């Protein structure tokens, strides 16, 4: 019997794939946003509304990550944009290799903004760099304030927290000031942005944020 | 529970290396798992056992063992310089209460070695 010293980082293949994706996105000048949240926070509805608002301005593509079904990609395709579904078949997050595998189906050269909707989960997706330009998190008001201190890593690695479903604020116990304070303690570089994908309240701020991000990403 | 996928990656890395060294049967794998690596040792052992017993990994003996070497977390406060063991990735200094300590150890997740013939 022999003992072989390997000293190999298990995440090495993921890191390499994320770099590969990042270089490709840079080459095609595509702004890539990795959207994460718990299940049901409204990621897909936000995307539908965003596509309606921006499809005359930008060529948009979407990668949908779910454990099972094509349902979300079907919803997005109805909006007339290209959508690819990754069914992870049990994995609780997207990893950069799954993303790299579907990129050939997307024709990145003809996409200005690519949204990657991660699997609904506030834990594992925060640990995987997909090669995106920005990571953002969606938190909906009925989920309550505790989500920020309970899942600190997610709020630490993201740079924008969309607080969705603010049309429900009169009916749920959600304290926006407390959310701002909690987020400051975990990540002073992130910001809270209250929106409603249903009523449209605050949505302009999100669209402005996206336009700015696109401008920055495509600057020579 | 992403330990299943991570274990699959680890076994693939060992398999590739074992092939290079002409090793056909692996009896033990030693991994270093940091307290702050977001990998749960129990879940990792569960994944290892599942692969080991499935018989789907040709080079892995069905009585192979997994050794997990724990790496404790260590952080340094960027304000007062205190070194301490943080409870989570967002390290908070026990002396001055400042968050965002610089992590010096505890994030490692790697295969240290393996044994076989």
From TrEMBL, chain A:
Domain CobW/HypB/UreG nucleotide-binding: 32-193
PANTHER family for this protein: HYDROGENASE MATURATION FACTOR HYPB, HYDROGENASE PROTEIN ASSEMBLY PROTEIN, NICKEL CHAPERONE
Record's protein name: Hydrogenase nickel incorporation protein HypB
Any one biological process term the GO annotation gives: protein maturation
Keywords: GTP-binding, Hydrolase, Metal-binding, Nickel, Nucleotide-binding, Zinc
Top-level taxonomic group: Bacteria
NCBIfam families: hypB
GO molecular function: GTP binding; GTPase activity; nickel cation binding; zinc ion binding
Family: Belongs to the SIMIBI class G3E GTPase family. HypB/HupM subfamily.
This protein's encoding gene: hypB
Any single Pfam family the record assigns to this protein: cobW
From TrEMBL, chain B:
Binding site for Zn(2+): 77, 80, 93, 96
Tagged with keyword RNA-binding: no
Keyword terms, alphabetized: Metal-binding, Nickel, Zinc
Gene Ontology BP terms: protein maturation
GO molecular function: nickel cation binding; zinc ion binding
Signal sequence region: none
Residue numbers binding Ni(2+): 2
Pfam families with a match to the protein in the record: HypA
Its job: Involved in the maturation of [NiFe] hydrogenases. Required for nickel insertion into the metal center of the hydrogenase.
Family: Belongs to the HypA/HybF family.
Protein name: Hydrogenase maturation factor HypA
Organism for this UniProt entry: Sporolactobacillus putidus
Name of the gene this protein is made from: hypA
């Amino acid at each position: 019997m022999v003992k072989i010293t390997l000293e190999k980082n298990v995440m090495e293949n993921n890191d390499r794939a994320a770099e590969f994706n990042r270089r490709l996105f840079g080459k095609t000048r595509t702004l890539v946003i990795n959207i994460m949240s718990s299940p049901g926070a409204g990621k897909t509805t936000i995307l539908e509304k965003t596509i309606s608002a921006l499809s005359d301005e930008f060529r948009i593509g979407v990668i949908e990550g779910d454990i099972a079904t094509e349902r979300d990609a079907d919803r997005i395709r109805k909006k007339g944009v290209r959508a690819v579904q990754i069914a992870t078949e049990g994995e609780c997050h997207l990893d950069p290799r799954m993303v790299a595998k579907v990129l050939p189906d997307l024709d990145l050269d003809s996409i200005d903004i690519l949204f990657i909707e991660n699997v609904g989960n506030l834990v594992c997706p925060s640990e995987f760099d997909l090669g995106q330009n920005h990571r953002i998190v969606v938190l909906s008001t009925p989920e309550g304030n505790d989500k920020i201190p309970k899942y600190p890593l997610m709020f630490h690695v993201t740079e924008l927290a969309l607080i969705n479903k603010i049309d429900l604020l009169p009916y749920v116990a959600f304290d926006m000031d407390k959310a701002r304070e909690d987020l400051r303690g975990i990540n002073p570089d992130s910001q809270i942005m209250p929106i409603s994908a249903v009523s449209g309240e605050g949505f302009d701020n999100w669209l402005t944020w996206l336009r700015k991000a696109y401008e920055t990403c495509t600057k020579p | 529970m992403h330990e299943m996928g991570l274990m699959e990656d680890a076994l693939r890395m060992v398999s590739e290396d074992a092939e290079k060294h002409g090793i056909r049967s692996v009896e033990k794998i030693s991994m270093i798992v940091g307290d702050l690596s977001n990998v749960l040792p129990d879940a990792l052992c569960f994944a290892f056992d599942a692969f080991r017993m499935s018989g789907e990994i040709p080079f892995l003996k069905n009585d192979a063992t997994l050794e997990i070497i724990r790496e404790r977390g260590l952080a340094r406060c960027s304000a007062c310089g205190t070194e301490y063991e943080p409870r989570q990735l967002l390290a908070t200094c026990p002396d001055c209460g400042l968050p965002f300590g610089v992590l010096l150890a505890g994030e490692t997740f790697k295969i240290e070695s393996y044994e076989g013939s």
